[in-house]
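User: quick one, fold this
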Amino acid sequence: MDVIEIIHKLQLKAHPEGGYYRETYRSNDSTTNSKGEVRNYSTAIYYLLENENKSHFHRIQSEELWFFHQGQTLEICLIRDDEIVSIFLGNDIESGEVPQAIIPANCWFASSIKKGLGYSLVSCTVAPGFDFSDFELGERVTLIEQYPGLKNVIEKYT
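Assistant:
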Protein backbone atom coordinates (compact mmCIF):
# COMPACT_ATOMS: atom_id res chain seq x y z
CA MET A 1 0.00 0.00 0.00
CA ASP A 2 1.16 3.51 -0.63
CA VAL A 3 0.58 6.38 1.79
CA ILE A 4 -2.47 7.72 -0.07
CA GLU A 5 -4.14 4.31 0.20
CA ILE A 6 -3.35 4.14 3.93
CA ILE A 7 -4.79 7.63 4.52
CA HIS A 8 -7.93 6.61 2.59
CA LYS A 9 -8.37 3.13 4.17
CA LEU A 10 -7.85 4.44 7.73
CA GLN A 11 -10.01 7.53 7.02
CA LEU A 12 -7.33 9.93 8.24
CA LYS A 13 -7.73 13.72 8.07
CA ALA A 14 -5.31 16.63 8.44
CA HIS A 15 -4.18 17.35 12.01
CA PRO A 16 -3.63 20.97 13.19
CA GLU A 17 -0.07 20.14 14.37
CA GLY A 18 0.81 18.51 11.02
CA GLY A 19 0.30 15.04 9.57
CA TYR A 20 -2.91 13.03 9.47
CA TYR A 21 -5.00 11.39 12.18
CA ARG A 22 -8.26 9.74 13.16
CA GLU A 23 -9.55 9.17 16.64
CA THR A 24 -10.20 5.45 17.08
CA TYR A 25 -11.17 5.27 20.75
CA ARG A 26 -12.66 7.47 23.46
CA SER A 27 -13.57 5.79 26.74
CA ASN A 28 -17.16 6.16 27.87
CA ASP A 29 -16.13 6.76 31.47
CA SER A 30 -14.66 10.05 32.61
CA THR A 31 -12.65 11.62 35.38
CA THR A 32 -11.96 15.13 36.62
CA ASN A 33 -8.43 16.45 36.07
CA SER A 34 -6.44 18.63 38.48
CA LYS A 35 -8.08 21.76 37.02
CA GLY A 36 -11.56 20.41 37.71
CA GLU A 37 -12.24 19.69 34.01
CA VAL A 38 -14.02 16.50 32.97
CA ARG A 39 -11.97 14.27 30.66
CA ASN A 40 -12.55 10.76 29.32
CA TYR A 41 -10.28 8.20 30.96
CA SER A 42 -8.42 7.57 27.72
CA THR A 43 -8.35 8.29 23.99
CA ALA A 44 -6.49 6.77 21.05
CA ILE A 45 -5.68 7.87 17.50
CA TYR A 46 -3.92 6.70 14.40
CA TYR A 47 -1.30 9.26 13.38
CA LEU A 48 0.66 9.41 10.14
CA LEU A 49 3.50 11.62 8.96
CA GLU A 50 4.95 11.50 5.46
CA ASN A 51 8.16 12.78 3.86
CA GLU A 52 9.01 16.30 5.06
CA ASN A 53 5.72 16.63 6.96
CA LYS A 54 6.24 17.42 10.67
CA SER A 55 4.39 17.32 13.91
CA HIS A 56 5.15 20.85 15.11
CA PHE A 57 6.13 21.67 18.69
CA HIS A 58 3.11 21.32 20.88
CA ARG A 59 2.17 20.12 24.34
CA ILE A 60 -0.87 18.68 26.04
CA GLN A 61 -1.90 18.42 29.67
CA SER A 62 -1.87 14.60 29.84
CA GLU A 63 0.72 11.89 29.32
CA GLU A 64 0.82 10.45 25.83
CA LEU A 65 2.04 7.05 24.66
CA TRP A 66 3.20 6.54 21.05
CA PHE A 67 3.23 3.10 19.39
CA PHE A 68 5.03 2.38 16.11
CA HIS A 69 3.15 0.35 13.48
CA GLN A 70 4.90 0.59 10.13
CA GLY A 71 6.97 2.68 7.79
CA GLN A 72 10.10 4.69 8.46
CA THR A 73 11.67 5.56 11.79
CA LEU A 74 10.01 8.52 13.49
CA GLU A 75 12.15 10.94 15.49
CA ILE A 76 10.34 12.50 18.43
CA CYS A 77 12.09 15.59 19.86
CA LEU A 78 11.24 16.61 23.42
CA ILE A 79 12.42 19.69 25.28
CA ARG A 80 13.64 18.54 28.70
CA ASP A 81 15.79 20.62 31.06
CA ASP A 82 16.53 23.17 28.27
CA GLU A 83 17.85 20.39 25.99
CA ILE A 84 16.50 18.37 23.09
CA VAL A 85 16.03 14.69 23.83
CA SER A 86 15.37 12.51 20.77
CA ILE A 87 13.44 9.27 20.83
CA PHE A 88 13.57 7.11 17.71
CA LEU A 89 10.30 5.24 17.28
CA GLY A 90 10.68 2.19 15.06
CA ASN A 91 11.35 -1.52 14.84
CA ASP A 92 15.17 -1.57 14.74
CA ILE A 93 15.62 -2.22 18.45
CA GLU A 94 19.23 -3.32 17.92
CA SER A 95 20.17 0.20 16.78
CA GLY A 96 18.36 1.98 19.62
CA GLU A 97 14.87 2.39 18.21
CA VAL A 98 11.92 1.68 20.47
CA PRO A 99 8.44 0.45 19.49
CA GLN A 100 6.75 2.73 22.03
CA ALA A 101 7.53 6.01 23.75
CA ILE A 102 6.11 8.02 26.63
CA ILE A 103 5.67 11.79 26.34
CA PRO A 104 5.29 13.44 29.76
CA ALA A 105 2.36 15.78 30.38
CA ASN A 106 3.04 19.46 29.60
CA CYS A 107 6.25 18.64 27.71
CA TRP A 108 6.99 20.43 24.43
CA PHE A 109 7.54 17.87 21.67
CA ALA A 110 7.61 17.52 17.90
CA SER A 111 8.33 14.75 15.41
CA SER A 112 9.39 14.00 11.86
CA ILE A 113 10.50 11.11 9.65
CA LYS A 114 14.13 10.45 10.61
CA LYS A 115 15.40 10.39 7.01
CA GLY A 116 12.74 12.75 5.63
CA LEU A 117 11.38 10.24 3.11
CA GLY A 118 8.55 7.75 3.29
CA TYR A 119 5.91 7.62 5.97
CA SER A 120 5.46 6.55 9.55
CA LEU A 121 2.20 5.16 10.91
CA VAL A 122 1.82 5.20 14.69
CA SER A 123 -0.91 5.19 17.31
CA CYS A 124 -1.09 7.55 20.25
CA THR A 125 -3.03 7.10 23.46
CA VAL A 126 -3.65 9.84 26.00
CA ALA A 127 -4.75 9.47 29.61
CA PRO A 128 -6.69 11.30 30.89
CA GLY A 129 -8.15 11.52 27.40
CA PHE A 130 -7.20 14.12 24.82
CA ASP A 131 -9.28 17.26 24.46
CA PHE A 132 -8.36 20.04 22.03
CA SER A 133 -8.77 22.58 24.84
CA ASP A 134 -5.68 20.92 26.43
CA PHE A 135 -3.64 21.34 23.21
CA GLU A 136 -1.11 24.18 22.85
CA LEU A 137 0.75 24.71 19.59
CA GLY A 138 4.19 26.25 20.16
CA GLU A 139 4.90 29.73 18.87
CA ARG A 140 8.38 30.18 17.40
CA VAL A 141 9.20 33.55 19.02
CA THR A 142 7.97 32.50 22.46
CA LEU A 143 9.83 29.17 22.41
CA ILE A 144 13.08 30.78 21.21
CA GLU A 145 12.81 33.37 24.00
CA GLN A 146 12.31 30.58 26.52
CA TYR A 147 14.96 28.24 25.03
CA PRO A 148 17.49 30.40 23.10
CA GLY A 149 20.02 27.57 22.88
CA LEU A 150 17.51 25.46 20.93
CA LYS A 151 16.83 28.04 18.22
CA ASN A 152 17.73 25.79 15.25
CA VAL A 153 15.49 22.91 16.35
CA ILE A 154 12.66 25.27 17.30
CA GLU A 155 12.85 26.91 13.87
CA LYS A 156 12.70 23.46 12.23
CA TYR A 157 9.57 22.44 14.15
CA THR A 158 7.54 25.68 14.31
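User: anything notable?
Assistant: Residues 61 and 128 are 9 Å apart (CA to CA).
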